[in-house]
Specification:
The protein is of the alpha+beta class. The chain has 11 helices and 16 strands. The strands form 4 sheets. A 5-stranded mixed beta sheet has the order 7-6-5-8-9, with helices on both faces. α3 packs antiparallel against α4. The longest helix has 34 residues. Bound molecules: zinc ion. Zinc ion (ZN) binds next to loops.
Length: 373
C-alpha cells in the first residue's frame, strides 16, 4: 500500500470511537523501557481509564499488545489506529520521532502522519554510472532494491590500425552505449515510481555520471527530481545512499516550503483579499470551502467544536450557528481544518514551529470570503 492510499483510507474511516496513538520509539534499549509508561500516560490523558467504555478499554489493550510486540523492530516512531467496532487496526512506521499523543475521535487523527509523510516522502534513489544502475526505494518502512541494471560495456580495441580512427570509433560506440544505458535506466525509474507510488527521484553517482544522466531525464521526471548527490556507486552501502538521499530530500522540502511561503507573501501584497491569517479568519475560510492552501505549524493544536450535521467548525459555541444542532467538542480544531481542506480539494502544508510563516495559521484562498463571516 502506498503512503497516499493509506491516508486516503484513514480519511474515509469513521467510527464512534477510534483511537489514534503516536509514540516515539527510542533506538536506545535503556530508553525503550519507558515506552509502556509513556503510552499509559497518553491513554490516561485521552480519557481511557478504568471508567471508560468497555469497547474503548479493549481497543487500548490492542494498542498495548501491539506496542509490546514492537521491541525487536524499534524504529523512530509508530502510529496505531484502532477501533474494534469497525475492524480497524492499522500500524504505520514513522521515519521521524513525533511527540507522543493519543486521541479518541470519530475518525483517525492524521495530522502527525501527514506531516511526516510530507517531510519524508517515499522516493526512488538511482545510483548510476555509465554501465550500472541501482534503484532503491526509500520509505518509512525501510529501503529496498527495486531494480538493478547492467548494460554491456565497450571492449578495448585490440586491432592494429590508425590509432586516431580506432579511438574515434570506439568512443562513438561507447557514447552510444552509455546513452542507451541511461535510457534503460530512465525506463526502470518510470516503472519503479509507478509500482511503488513514489513521488520523488534522487540521483547519485560521480559528478560526471549524474550530470550525464540528468540530460536524458524526460520533463515529467525532471519535475520530480529532488536533487542529486555525489557518491562512488561501487563502494557506497545502501545505508550511505539513504543518508545522502535523505539530505537531498530534506533540502528539497525546505526549498519547497520557502517558495510556498514566498508565494503567500506575494499574494498578501498584491491580492490581499485572497490571503487570511489567524485562526478565526482561517476557520471562516475553511467553512466556506474557500481554502486552496492551508499552512499550519506542525505542533500547534487548539480545542474546538464541530457540527456533525453541516460540518461547520467553530471555537467553542455550544450549538451550530447554521442549523442549531449541538456541537461536538474536538481536541484539535486544526485537525478538522486540515481534513476539511483536503476534502474540498485544497492542499495543506505543515511547517516547523520556527518557519517564517506570514501569520498563523495562514491560508491562500480560491476566492475572497467575508472577514469573520
Ligand atoms: Zn450545523
Amino acid at each position: 500500500m502506498t503512503d497516499r492510499t493509506l491516508v486516503d483510507r484513514l480519511l474515509r474511516t469513521r467510527g464512534s470511537a477510534v483511537i489514534s496513538a503516536y509514540l516515539g520509539l527510542p533506538n536506545d534499549p535503556t530508553e525503550q523501557r519507558g515506552v509502556p509508561i509513556r503510552l499509559e500516560e497518553q491513554l490516561y490523558q485521552a480519557g481511557i481509564d478504568p471508567r471508560a467504555a468497555p469497547a474503548l478499554r479493549r481497543d487500548a489493550d490492542t494498542i498495548r499488545d501491539a506496542v509490546a510486540g514492537l521491541y525487536d523492530t524499534l524504529r523512530n516512531g509508530v502510529a496505531l489506529f484502532v477501533s474494534g467496532e469497525i475492524g480497524l487496526f492499522e500500524q504505520v512506521w514513522l521515519p521521524r520521532i513525533v511527540p507522543d499523543r493519543v486521541i479518541v475521535g470519530q475518525r483517525p487523527y492524521v495530522r502527525p502522519l501527514l506531516a511526516t509523510q510530507q517531510r519524508c516522502p517515499r522516493y526512488c534513489a538511482v545510483v548510476t554510472d555509465h554501465q550500472h544502475s541501482t534503484l532503491l526505494i526509500a520509505s518509512a518502512d525501510g529501503l529496498w532494491e527495486s531494480d538493478h541494471l547492467v548494460s554491456p560495456g565497450v571492449r578495448k580495441p585490440n586491432f592494429a590500425g590508425w590509432y586516431g580512427l580506432a579511438e574515434y570509433t570506439v568512443r562513438n560506440r561507447a557514447e552510444g552505449l552509455v546513452r542507451r544505458h541511461h535510457r534503460h535506466t530512465v525506463e526502470a525509474v518510470e516503472n519503479a515510481l509507478r509500482r511503488n507510488g513514489c513521488e520523488l527521484v534522487v540521483v547519485g553517482g560521480s559528478r560526471h555520471s549524474v550530470a550525464e544522466f540528468r540530460t536524458v531525464l524526460p520533463r515529467h521526471l525532471r519535475e520530480r527530481l529532488a536533487g542529486s548527490f555525489t557518491t562512488n556507486p561501487r563502494v557506497a552501502t545502501p545505508a550511505e545512499v539513504r543518508r545522502d538521499a535523505d539530505e537531498v530530500v530534506d533540502r528539497w522540502n525546505r526549498e519547497r516550503q520557502r517558495r510556498l511561503l514566498d508565494d503567500i507573501r506575494a499574494h498578501a501584497g498584491t491580492d490581499a483579499a485572497r490571503v487570511v491569517s489567524g485562526l478565526t479568519g482561517c476557520l471562516s475560510a475553511v467553512n466556506e470551502r474557500a481554502v486552496d492552501l492551508l499552512v499550519v505549524r506542525t505542533h500547534d493544536t487548539a480545542p474546538g467544536v464541530v457540527c456533525d450535521n453541516c460540518d461547520l467548525l467553530a471555537f467553542e459555541e455550544r450549538t451550530c450557528a447554521i442549523c442549531g444542532t449541538e456541537n461536538r467538542p474536538v481536541p484539535d480544531v486544526y485537525e478538522e481544518m486540515v481534513v476539511a481542506v483536503l476534502d474540498s480539494g485544497g492542499t495543506v502544508e505543515q511547517v516547523d514551529s520556527d518557519a517564517p510563516v506570514p501569520g498563523h495559521p495562514v491560508a491562500r484562498l480560491r476566492f475572497p470570503v467575508p472577514a469573520g463571516g
